[in-house]
Amino acid sequence: MPRPLLGRHTVVATTDVDQAREAVAERFCAHYLALTKAGSHLDMVHNAAPLGEDVMLNYMRYGDEVRITPGTFEDFYLIQLPLAGTAKVKVGEQVVLADRTRASIGSPTEPVDMLWSDGCEKLQVYIRRSAVEEAAAGIGGSGPVVFDPTLDLGRPEVRDWMKMVRLAYDNVEAGGSLMSSPLVAAPYEQALIGGLLTVQPNTSLEVASATASPSVSRAVRMAVDLLEAHPERPWKVPDLAQRVGVSTRTLQEAFQRDLGTTPLEYWRRTRLDRARSDLLAADARATSVTEIAAQWGFFHLGRFSQAYRAQFQELPSQTLMR
User: Fold this and answer.
1) What is the mean pLDDT of each run of 10 residues along the chain (322 residues)?
2) What are phi and psi of 162, to 5 degrees?
């Protein structure tokens, strides 16, 4: 097992399930925790370093596969970034298959149920609920803020936000003084929170977008809903634009401005996501990569493998074997 991150800030290191559960409950919330396989062993490490009053960086691992069910996160948001292994995270009614290419976001009002794989390690960003809601109120939001639980780490704007997370982590890990200064920590926390509200779809962003540009925002949301609901259809941009009631050019420009991509690229990523889910769920002895690729409209295996590797940093055959 590699050296844990945030090693200067150890909260608990234990092989006892009860001790692990109690220690994490003190920092987060009460939860169910159990090893899932007979003969497995706990190798739990939790390190934590606060940036200020509202944001805390965490490193967490459990060793062998575990099931964790906190119910709801109560008064905080938790962005979970797998560093190794995978996790199946159910947030509300949505399931996130988290790995090095996508993270999960738990919101306080949504029930959460998690299955961490053997060897799963995560960098977790804890953000106080009140700080998020205060920041959302500043852009016209009101009430509870609920994030889309899937954070696509390949999106350019998300990569920019992750650079901010890594800068904070690198300074804390190195024992630097930058983040220990109130003059830096408080504004940096606000920048992290504001950045997350900006780059990740959430209920406050919908309110702000509707106020600023209702027709365009509605068109993008409608188009995304269609692409997500029916990724198997042979979509063309003019057909999609007609369905949502705007011109082809307007839809192209709205996607680029709001999501930093094109409708067809968004559709392609959606189909790749669905193919990945099928590969993870398939039996490698009974299913081939070619079959699953074809089901999602990828008929040239070489190009499919190239696009898949670019999005998920591994070949589809590797996913299927796992």
Assistant:
1) 70 96 94 95 95 94 96 92 95 92 94 96 96 86 85 90 92 81 87 92 64 60 89 90 87 90 93 92 89 90 91 91 80
2) -65, -30
- CA–CA dist 288, 294 (Å, integer): 10
Cβ neighbourhood burial of 41 (10 Å; 0-12, 13-18, 19+): exposed
Q: Which of 26, 106, 20 is nearest to 63 (CA)?
A: 20
Sign (positive or negative) of CA dihedral 32, 96, 94, 288:
negative
219: tokens are: 């068109």
Q: How many CB atoms lie within 10 A of CB 297?
A: 17
Closest CA to 186 of 161, 199, 168: 168
CA angle 126, 112, 143 (to 5 degrees): 65
Q: Which residues pair with 42 in a beta bridge?
A: 63
Q: Are 115 and 153 in contact (CB under 8 A)?
A: no
Token duo for residue 220: 């993008």
Cα angle 55, 59, 62 (rounded to 5 degrees) comes to 135
Measured between alpha carbons, how far is 70 from 49 in angstroms, rounded to an integer? 21
Q: Where are the beta strands (DSSP E) in the chain?
A: 10-14, 32-35, 42-50, 55-63, 66-71, 76-84, 87-91, 94-98, 102-106, 112-116, 121-128, 150-152
Token output for 160? 């920019």
What are the b/e assignments for 112-133, b being 16+ CB within 10 Å?
A: bebbbbeebbbbbbbbbbebbb
The pLDDT score that the predictor gives to residue 215 is 46
11-21: b (≥16 Cβ within 10 Å) or e: bbebeeeeebb
Q: For the whole model, what pTM was predicted?
A: 0.66
- Give residue 206's pLDDT: 54
